[in-house]
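This protein record is not my work; I was only asked to verify it. Take the sequence as given and treat only the tokens as open to question. I have pasted the whole thing underneath without changing anything:
***
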Amino acid sequence: MNESIYGAWKDALPQVLHSIVSQIEDFSQKRKEETGEAAYEHLIYRIKTEDSMREKCRRKGLPENASSALYDIHDAIGIRIVCCFLNDIYENMNFIRSIPGCTIVKEKDYIKSAKPNGYRSCHLIVEMEAPFADVKGRNPGHFFAEIQLRTIAMDSWASLEHQMKYKKNIKNPEMITRELKRCADELASCDLSMQTIRNLIRQEH
């Protein structure tokens, strides 16, 4: 059997993932205790499979080794925070910025500037400090994670668009692409309206 592409750090990744996730969960629980509302609707996370990471290395022309997987590529750890409302996304982002030992090294806001196909989400690449050596020999070590933040509407749309992207022999792809873009814009409008209504309700108390 081939050695893990994550090498000696294969068992470290779940520890780093747990560290980030547990802090995000604690933040949401504390917010719920204070306001009655959780910070997100649901939290999804994973460590990229060996096959997926090897395929990504090949696609990027990188050697299939731990240095590529943990240093050159930044999504060995993936987290998705799905929120009810737009403001929740930015509250979660502000919390992530405050996590000790966590540095945001890249940030893309596809909500304020949607992709041409209608895709909306916020993407963060974070660098987390860990109490053990990393692939470059640094101790404390540094490990990367990709965090996506989106509303429920954005998440449903992205799931549908993903099916469109990877399903073969689709009839009328141009028409479906146009309809997806139209739906994305309508959902974005609904997200704004829902946030406005929520703000108005909160003003009543």
The chain has a mean pLDDT of 94. The longest strand covers residues 141-151. The helical segments are 12-35, 50-60, 66-72, 86-98, 152-166, 173-203.
